[in-house]
Amino acid sequence: MTIHYPNGTQYQPHSANRPMHTNASLVKHGGRGMTLEQEINESNQYYLAHDIAVIHKKPTPIQIVKVDYPKRSAAVIREAYFRQASTTDYNGIYRGRYIDFDAKETKETTRFPLDNFHQHQVEHMRSCLKQGGICFGLVKFVTLDQLYLLKATDLIKYWDAQENGNGRKSIPLSAFEASAIPIKYSLNPIIAYLDAVDQLI
Amino acid sequence: MTIHYPNGTQYQPHSANRPMHTNASLVKHGGRGMTLEQEINESNQYYLAHDIAVIHKKPTPIQIVKVDYPKRSAAVIREAYFRQASTTDYNGIYRGRYIDFDAKETKETTRFPLDNFHQHQVEHMRSCLKQGGICFGLVKFVTLDQLYLLKATDLIKYWDAQENGNGRKSIPLSAFEASAIPIKYSLNPIIAYLDAVDQLI
């Protein structure tokens, strides 16, 4: 029997065509199938719940052009555009220190292209370093399934060399192996990146 | 003579019908006509440009439902809703310290109603304080043209008393005069709120 709801859409039981929603916060599977952003957000929730750190992802910046205010219901944004962020995506506090970083994924297997970062993100890190903040990138080589904490000072060194026209357009994997801090997947949190941060403090 | 550009729009000289854009960062007038948010943003720009602090307002959190991707032009968000933020609006770093605050305006003249803050903002401040952060509210009594730095510890004291049912629903102005830090308007930055923060460090 087919049940038709008043709006004309057809009822579909959960077991049928629709994918089941799994509760990501309950089902832990070492980050399989999750984006780096999801892995970081879950890890931040763990750190927050256990009073270890307060680190959040900033919302995506949006330029709002048109908003409808229907009676008796919530305001609806009808026209808006994505803007470029003027900072990195993540910041917060850990052990009294200001933490600031961005997350980047690459499918490359031998190098990390610098154009994954934007000029303003690098400048933002430079400013935060001057104030005594702890800044870095979390860089994931997706194909290799390898995750590194890349110190902002190292990133800036490669960035400036590229800007001056006498550097490469990417950071070789060998440089990560030599001077970045590898992060292993674990159960709780999925990525214990603050253990890597401990090595910077 | 009328000049038509290839796309059919008509050229308008700057002196004609269009309003001139005044450069808000050049014209300073002690905050007159600016919202508290604008005053803080301008002050933060000043602090950033002078290597004094790196403090930004977080973007408004938006739940995006529908996005159009027109050919050869930018993606357009066609349906989205405002979400409630899970943190305060401003954070950053100053003199090596993590700074976290929210800005509130009230038209009241004798008291600041606590419902200007949301539960999650107070909980966020509580978490940041535990990590050693510097947390506060910037509270402006618009009608009185008075601005105060309200320490998070004082805010939490009133908040918890209210929650426990044995406190007031607002903080009296007299309490601000007694224990909040007054902030005077100045030229550069418009509100030198980090001078008030110095008294907390």
From TrEMBL, chains A, B:
<dbReference type="GO" id="GO:0003676">
    <property type="term" value="F:nucleic acid binding"/>
</dbReference>
<keyword id="KW-0479">Metal-binding</keyword>
<dbReference type="GO" id="GO:0005737">
    <property type="term" value="C:cytoplasm"/>
</dbReference>
<keyword id="KW-0233">DNA recombination</keyword>
<feature type="region of interest" description="Disordered">
    <location>
        <begin position="1"/>
        <end position="24"/>
    </location>
</feature>
<dbReference type="GO" id="GO:0008821">
    <property type="term" value="F:crossover junction DNA endonuclease activity"/>
</dbReference>
<keyword id="KW-0234">DNA repair</keyword>
<feature type="compositionally biased region" description="Polar residues">
    <location>
        <begin position="7"/>
        <end position="24"/>
    </location>
</feature>
<feature type="binding site">
    <location>
        <position position="121"/>
    </location>
    <ligand>
        <name>Mg(2+)</name>
    </ligand>
</feature>
<comment type="function">
    <text>Endonuclease that resolves Holliday junction intermediates in genetic recombination. Cleaves mobile four-strand junctions by introducing symmetrical nicks in paired strands. Promotes annealing of linear ssDNA with homologous dsDNA. Required for DNA repair, homologous recombination and chromosome segregation.</text>
</comment>
<dbReference type="InterPro" id="IPR011335">
    <property type="entry name" value="Restrct_endonuc-II-like"/>
</dbReference>
<feature type="binding site">
    <location>
        <position position="89"/>
    </location>
    <ligand>
        <name>Mg(2+)</name>
    </ligand>
</feature>
<keyword id="KW-0378">Hydrolase</keyword>
<feature type="site" description="Transition state stabilizer">
    <location>
        <position position="104"/>
    </location>
</feature>
<dbReference type="GO" id="GO:0007059">
    <property type="term" value="P:chromosome segregation"/>
</dbReference>
<feature type="binding site">
    <location>
        <position position="87"/>
    </location>
    <ligand>
        <name>Mg(2+)</name>
    </ligand>
</feature>
<dbReference type="GO" id="GO:0006281">
    <property type="term" value="P:DNA repair"/>
</dbReference>
<keyword id="KW-0540">Nuclease</keyword>
<dbReference type="GO" id="GO:0006310">
    <property type="term" value="P:DNA recombination"/>
</dbReference>
<keyword id="KW-0963">Cytoplasm</keyword>
<dbReference type="InterPro" id="IPR011856">
    <property type="entry name" value="tRNA_endonuc-like_dom_sf"/>
</dbReference>
<dbReference type="GO" id="GO:0000287">
    <property type="term" value="F:magnesium ion binding"/>
</dbReference>
<feature type="binding site">
    <location>
        <position position="102"/>
    </location>
    <ligand>
        <name>Mg(2+)</name>
    </ligand>
</feature>
<comment type="similarity">
    <text>Belongs to the RecU family.</text>
</comment>
<dbReference type="Pfam" id="PF03838">
    <property type="entry name" value="RecU"/>
</dbReference>
<keyword id="KW-0227">DNA damage</keyword>
<protein>
    <recommendedName>
        <fullName>Holliday junction resolvase RecU</fullName>
        <ecNumber>3.1.21.10</ecNumber>
    </recommendedName>
</protein>
<keyword id="KW-0255">Endonuclease</keyword>
<dbReference type="InterPro" id="IPR004612">
    <property type="entry name" value="Resolv_RecU"/>
</dbReference>
<keyword id="KW-0460">Magnesium</keyword>
